[in-house]
């Protein structure tokens, strides 16, 4: 069992010190190491002033939503002074995932890596690296994040962007007071290293590169890929990417760097975070080489990178893509504005799927489902938007009101689902990374403009599409995913931009197998937090 304590600790970055919520006093948090097939127990005790819950991002939690973690979806949060033990099995998964707080904006500080090694005697499907290193990309605000968010909500506006991005909790030498807050990785000439890269940022897709070095992508979201070589990767919030690098350049010091990708008129923290790739025996006085990153709005680099991602699809690691579809779903992603008498402009910015802004319940949805508590949610989430329109045409700035509700979509156990996520130009087009809890899915298609149901499915990749748990919907475009609903319970799906999740860009699926919840879902733990 891993004992973890949620504590407040003073941390200094960018010449600013502030108290932040941490796990075991660390920022970023500790890595959990496990092996495929392991049972993992994490006892979490909350000594902070905020209620807390932890999500184990990408772990499927088969029949065990009680361990999934999103507050008011599969559990009520752990109150100050209380404990809860997350108890889960790692079945059929290996690779890099991560954990993070799943309440308020606490994942700005509370996050860490999960490294799952293959079963004993099972090799990687790529050359064994000399060493492995986790690279966790995050964000830093000089002011208290929760205070900024609460102030912005009262005004009906978005909070300010972060003051810096970080690599393993450190912003790098391009920022003030940051020479000692720069992550450094030592390598030996001629040897190969595995980087386990995680985007734990709240609101930014990121380009990542290393000066002078190629990267070979071998895994995404804990699923092996067909290897390919690239100078830059794109990684959305919530995603993980494993790359091999070979220390094959003249021994020196080289910068790793990350900066946001944003091809819409939306403000982001566009500053560059750096870390150092340091060849052994090279003096620290050597000035490291700076890599060239794509322009922040370089859509071509982003799209071409994502097109290269394909599942490994070997006999040992099959891509089990659903070829027959039982449920066709089409969800539009929209921004909006609802009346707010106390807000600065008389409106509150909001977001919706199929024009529904999700309202968080006061009771965990899984508890309501399992114990048959009435009045908490409805299972009438629509399969299509209420009114078709030219989704990505001219910007729409009128009639931006949305419906409010805690509405879920009911899906039969073991049925196959195709979901098309369509961006819209309500206020503005924008890219949206979506995360589905409880499942992996196959990204069978993507495109710019409006999805065409009579033409676009013919272009799907049904042989070796990338398998993920988090996918980006391109700016002014669409993404199609397929998955098999083989995990009974209540499973959250939401935008992994924290701002849009806060504004209501989320929903949940109820997967039922014809039996009562007591028969299809494992019983809740004795120490499940009360609501």
UniProtKB/TrEMBL annotation:
GO molecular function: copper ion binding; hydroquinone:oxygen oxidoreductase activity
Entry superkingdom: Eukaryota
Entries under InterPro entries matching the protein: Cu-oxidase-like_N, Cu-oxidase_2nd, Cu-oxidase_C, Cu-oxidase_fam, Cu_oxidase_CS, Cu_oxidase_Cu_BS, Cupredoxin, CuRO_1_LCC
Cofactor note: Binds 4 Cu cations per monomer.
EC numbers: 1.10.3.2
GO cellular component, one term: apoplast
Domain Plastocyanin-like: 6-120, 133-280, 380-514
GO BP of this protein: lignin catabolic process
Keyword Secreted applies: yes
Catalytic activity: 4 hydroquinone + O2 = 4 benzosemiquinone + 2 H2O
Cofactor: Cu cation
Entry's family note: Belongs to the multicopper oxidase family.
Role: Lignin degradation and detoxification of lignin-derived products.
Descriptive protein name: Laccase
Species of the source: Gossypium stocksii
Taxonomy of the source species: Eukaryota, Viridiplantae, Streptophyta, Embryophyta, Tracheophyta
